[in-house]
């Protein structure tokens, strides 16, 4: 049995291990949950490194398929199923708080795939925007969702009431970001995975 402690306070202190049947439970620094690496400080460099390694391995097979003269539509389908699916796994949970360096690392995977397939692909930021809008739509349309009440319209009917965030980590997380987007963004159909959102820069602002 092991224990995972997440503590990102500025003034950190040592945590006494749990004691079960007179045996201390080992405290680990990182763990993997639903394919996502969680570390004690809730940073995402380890998760990014793991995703990048998996995606790079699959780029080799994409290159082999191109050398076999497969057409771009088939190569794009392969990319979506084997590479983009890895890059976007649980992306709404972790991408908002990734460092600039981590985002550039992920974007290099997309650019490499573009050069192989020789077609334009959505950036990692556009993928994140699309997934967030889609997730927010599902929450808004489902009154039984536990987080449905977070999306409360202001009197203007154009925006939702924002969540007060005292830390950058919370501000960049999914709910504060999704709630800050204009209401019409949620009412629109989520952009296709291979059509850049019309105002991607505004969505992420």
TrEMBL record:
GO terms for molecular function: 2-oxoglutarate-dependent dioxygenase activity; methyltransferase activity. InterPro entries: AlkB_hom8_N. It comes from the Eukaryota. Residues 44-85 form the Alkylated DNA repair protein AlkB homologue 8 N-terminal domain. This is Alkylated DNA repair protein AlkB homologue 8 N-terminal domain-containing protein. It comes from Hemibagrus guttatus.
